Amino acid sequence: MQHLAVDLGGKESQLCIRLSDSKILLERRILTSQLPSFFKVQPPSRVILETGAEAFTIADAALAAGHEVRVVPATLVRTLGVGSRGMKSDRRDAQILSEVSCRIDLPTVHVPSHRSREWKAMCGMRQALVDSRTKMVNTVRGWMRGRLTRVALGTVSTLPSRVRKKCPDLPQFVERQLSAIEQLSEMIRAYEKDFAAMAELDPVCRRLMTIPGVGPLVAIRFVSAVDDLSRFEGPHALQSYLGLTPGEDSSSERHRITGITKAGNSRTRWILVQAAWTVLRCRAGDPMAQWAEQIAARKGKKPAVIALARKLAGIMFAIWRDGSEYNPTKGAKSETPRVYVMKPS
């Protein structure tokens, strides 16, 4: 079998092809856009890529051409020797990846589906709009505080009208900022309508949205992050993957449990925490909320919210796996320590 390593670049990429005995068969540069055609004329090979913006599209092309694919985590490539002793170039990187592949079967990250990548991109673009609007709102609020002025409470989308009502004679630069906030709010609402329609058409999302605190955006972010549920042995493996399980810092006679690991996709973890806050504030009668309140009485509100976010992830896993809907009479028992295992990709 050939071992075909590709050091990907935005415009050009570096190839290094070795035979199984580690002998170099070919080295060359190639336009990244030509890689799919190049894969089609190669014999069955193991294609090795490093994670990056182009990696999953190129991985799809290699899989379609009948090759094995290993997308190596960027955190791992340095331990393989890439960039060691201050020596790094595209050619050396490709050589190292192909040489290591001849010796061991390199681990690979999960190659997400096209739908997963599209949904993640949409969520990321919506979040960019939200972040931009937040910065603009803060500049307007700062200007008003400098004038010792405050506006009535309300939502972000109504801030421009409230500011205009409070200060009829606004400077042009503030008016431009308010107009931009209105435009961003309109675009964000359009995204929310799109997400609601997408979630309604997806059977998994529809079932997930029967859970308190889980709306279209939470469901879509969760499904796009998980992508393939069979990757996980069980709900506890998924909770660990999302970084919602406690870490450990033990050595010799010292044993210490730390806060959550915060591994995995930070935005998915964040939105599950927001969903947990929603359950606590708006669904106080639900068994989940009552269970979390018991934890809050012992440990405080924040640990209780994290525990509830972890439980939400487990419930979402079970509903996806079983094809069921939320049943409030299940899953309100206290947690017990477990081993967290994730299937290799």
Summarize the structure.
It is built from 13 helices and seven strands. The chain has helices at 35-40, 55-64, 74-77, 90-103, 114-146, 159-166, 172-201, 203-208, 216-226, 235-241, 266-282, 287-299, 301-322; strands at residues 2-7, 12-18, 24-31, 45-50, 68-72, 246-248, 257-260. A five-stranded mixed β-sheet has the order 3-2-1-4-5, sandwiched between helices. The protein has a two-stranded antiparallel sheet with strand order 6-7.
**Main pleated-sheet profile:** 5 strands, mixed
Secondary-structure content class:
alpha/beta
Q: What's the β-strand tally?
A: 7
- Fraction in helix: 40-55%
Cross-sheet strand order for the largest sheet: 3-2-1-4-5
The rounded distance between the terminal residues' Cα atoms is 21 Å
The number of distinct structural domains comes to 3
What general form does the structure show? globular
Strand content: 5-15%
**Rg over alpha carbons:** 25 Å
Question: Which runs of at least 5 residues are low in confidence (pLDDT < 50)?
Answer: 331-345
Number of helices: 13
Order of helices and strands: EEEHEHEHHHHHHHHEEHHH
Average residue-wise pLDDT: 91
In words, what does this structure look like?
It is globular and about 75 Å long. The protein has a five-stranded mixed sheet with strand order 3-2-1-4-5, with helices on both faces. A two-stranded antiparallel ribbon has the order 6-7. The chain has helices spanning 35-40, 55-64, 74-77, 90-103, 114-146, 159-166, 172-201, 203-208, 216-226, 235-241, 266-282, 287-299, 301-322; strands at residues 2-7, 12-18, 24-31, 45-50, 68-72, 246-248, 257-260. It folds into three domains: 2-103, ATPase, nucleotide binding domain (Nucleotidyltransferase, domain 5, 2-Layer Sandwich); 115-201; 206-322, no CATH class. It has 345 residues and is of the alpha/beta class. The chain is built from 13 helices and seven strands. Helices cover 52% and strands 11% of the residues. Helix 5 (114-146) crosses helix 9, helix 7 crosses helix 9 and helix 12 runs antiparallel to helix 13.
